[in-house]
Amino acid sequence: MNPTPVLRAGLDDDAAGFIALVDTCWAEYPGCVMDLDGEVPELRALATYYAQQNGALWAAEQDGRVVGMVATKPLADGTWELCKMYAYANQRGTGLAQSLVAAAETHARSHGATEMRLWSDTRFDRAHRFYEKSSYLRAGPIRSLNDLSNSMEFEYAKPLTGAHVQRLNAAAAVSAVPRLAAILKDCVDAGGNLSFRAPLPQEKAAAYMRRVASQAARGERILFAAWSDGILAGSVTLDLALPDNQRHRAEIKKLMVAPAARRRGLARALLHQAEAAASDAGRDILTLATHEGGEAEHLYAAEGWQRGGSMPDYTRTADGTPEAVVFFWKAIK
């Protein structure tokens, strides 16, 4: 059995290992080729390259061989970039990629970073799935590098520190599906009343979040996501697609925060953003429903929502027990 790779500072002397690693990873994708001296000459002295930009570089070494790498550098105004993130195929699924990203994020955070960004070739679909599971979402337009590989790249980003709520555009909403589906499953399986019964299959949760992303892209819903110290941990949707005679109101749906991230103010921050968006959309009244006696009921009451009544036996818990639902409303103009 091979020993666990050791993370250490990357060196200029690692050039041969870095070049071989990047070349191998690129070769997995049709049309992706390396022009070393024409396009990535920095690989010949990568530690110096990042040191000159006040950045940092790591190598993952196993049996004297470089098997992974990552770098980070400051951009501007608290934003740092995650760069040169690669690992050999036989290292995938071992946790090495998570360790590399964690090293870069920890370094950036310790140097004042509040946001991380990265670029990834549009062909690197496995990398995209990894970044999305790591709470990065698509941001900004696609860029073209005008290189031998005809590379086009997606930009990904995430807030790195504190509590942060963001309204998601269509691209970000689609890339948020894996993480939001995992949160939905965790909330339902922990007893949350979110219109699903536990245990919630992951694919069913993903199918629901894909529908929400599609509705957000069409302007029927507004989707917000919340991060806590770099982890995408909650969301809420604002339903605007109501009947013609009810276009003065909107509905709050699926306000959820991952169990491990509760009591950090995320639910309240999500609610405030949804209320503001409803006001901006010209809606006068907000409505929602939640199960009676839960934490959400106390949150809505504390935030000035009016109790409109309750209905017994409205839903069923995972074991089939009848459960009452409370209806709330709030005037926002």
Notes on the protein architecture:
This protein is an alpha+beta fold and 333 residues long. It folds into two domains: 153 residues, Aminopeptidase; 169 residues, 3-Layer(aba) Sandwich (Aminopeptidase). Helices cover 32% and strands 33% of the residues. Strands 1, 2, 3, 4, 5, 6, 7 and 8 form an eight-stranded mixed β-sheet that branches. A seven-stranded mixed β-sheet has the order 9-10-11-12-13-15-14, sandwiched between helices. α4 links the parallel β4 and β5. α5 crosses α6 and α6 packs antiparallel against α7. The longest helix has 20 residues. The chain is elongated and about 70 Å long. The mean pLDDT is 96.
Q: What does the secondary structure layout of this molecule look like, with pairings?
A:
Layout lengths: L5 E4 L5 H13 L8 H4 L6 H6 L4 E7 L2 E12 L2 E9 L8 H15 L4 E7 L3 H9 L3 E2 L4 E2 L7 E8 L3 E5 L2 H20 L12 H16 L3 E8 L2 E9 L9 E9 L8 H15 L4 E7 L3 H8 L3 E11 L5 E10 L2
Parallel strand pairs: 4-5, 12-13
Antiparallel strand pairs: 1-2, 2-3, 3-4, 5-8, 6-8, 7-8, 9-10, 10-11, 11-12, 13-15, 14-15
Helix pairs in contact: 5-6, 6-7
Can you summarize this structure?
With 333 residues, this protein is α+β, with helices and mostly antiparallel strands. It has helices at 15-27, 36-39, 46-51, 96-110, 125-133, 170-189, 202-217, 266-280, 295-302, and strands at residues 6-9, 56-62, 65-76, 79-87, 115-121, 137-138, 143-144, 152-159, 163-167, 221-228, 231-239, 249-257, 285-291, 306-316, 322-331.
Key words describing this protein structure:
single chain, 8-stranded mixed β-sheet, 2 domains, Aminopeptidase, 9 helices, 32% helix, 333 residues, alpha+beta, 7-stranded mixed β-sheet
